[in-house]
Amino acid sequence: MFKVAVLVSGGGSNLQSIIDSISTGYLKDVSIEYVISDKGDAFALERAKNAGIKTLVIERNAHKQTLSEEIYKVLKGNVDLIVLAGFLSIIKGTLLEEFKNKIINIHPSLIPSFCGKGMYGLKVHEAAINYGVKVSGCTVHLVEEDTDAGAIVLQRTVEVLAEDTKETLQKRILVEEHKALPEAIKLFSENKISVAGRHVIVKE
Ligand code: GAR
Q1: Which CATH code fits 1-99?
Q2: C or N terminus of the chain, fewer CB within 10 Å?
Q3: 147 lines ligand 1 (CB under 6 A)
Q4: How far apart are CA 39 and CA 35, in angstroms?
Q5: 194 touches 201 (CB < 8 A)
Q6: Catalytic center residues
Q7: Contact, 179 vs 155, CB < 8 A?
Q8: Does domain 106-204 have CATH number 3.40.50.170?
């Protein structure tokens, strides 16, 4: 079994897409071992509980400097991949070193546009609309020390329409996120990913 931990901070629609992909059989021999939230009131926790998945809350406010260390203590030796699905805290230290190339994040833009510190959720879509881009999308990437800077695993594009608001664009991009994240997990679980510097190579 390929064991995954999903880290969340909010609504958890991306978590739901992973749960559903396991239920439908798109993800085979994959199990979500833990859902960890840095916020006690994240709706994602309800989704996890409904699916019978172990949940854990490690409050960001109570563990400002030690959050990654606390997560590492729980996950050390217990999972093959860590998935950040709308997780808004920074991953650092031993967790990052020991899970090198085994932590992925989903970001709601085409990196390197509209990403980095402070760029999350609706802010990303607002920035894309304000800039006037014609295409946006989502990116699954490896997690490194710098925010949103790791090598890209895969991207999906979405056309930006003249009448789009940040909310409508977010909605259409989420549809693609819900395909991209399970697809990336599938590639890792089938051992089809190798990393050469900034390049993620996907085996046929
Ligand atoms: C998603 O759009 C995700 O890409 C974004 O937060 C949302 C979480 O939604 N993540 C970031 O902006 C990270 N920089 P969800 O809780 O419904 O999955």
Answers
A1: 3.40.50.170
A2: C
A3: no
A4: 12
A5: yes
A6: 107
A7: no
A8: yes
Report the nearest atom of ligand 1 relative to the CA of 11: 16
For the chain, domain boundaries? 1-99, 106-204
Interatomic CA distance for residues 185 and 118, integer angstroms: 26
Q: Which of 114, 140, 172, 174 is the best mutation target for the ligand 1 pocket, counting ligand atoms within 8 Å of the beta carbon and taking the most?
A: 174
Q: Is the dihedral of CA 25, 72, 8, 44 positive or negative?
A: positive
- Establish whether domains 1-99 and 106-204 are of one fold: yes
Query: Which segments are annotated as binding site for (6R)-10-formyltetrahydrofolate?
Result: 105
Any ligand 1 atom below 6 A from CB of 87: no
Tell me the per-residue pLDDT of 136-169, one tens digit each, with 9 for 90 and over. Answer: 999 999 999 999 999 999 999 999 999 999 999 9
DSSP state of 81: E
190 contact partners, CB below 8 Å, separation of at least 6: none
List of the chain residues with pLDDT < 70: none
Q: 86-91: which pairs have CB atoms within 8 A and are 24 or more residues apart?
A: 86/8, 86/9, 86/10, 86/11, 86/12, 86/13, 86/14, 86/15, 86/44, 87/7, 87/8, 87/9, 87/38, 88/9, 88/10, 88/38, 88/120, 89/9, 89/38, 89/60, 90/147, 91/143
What are the pLDDT digits (tens) for 3-20? 999 999 999 999 999 999
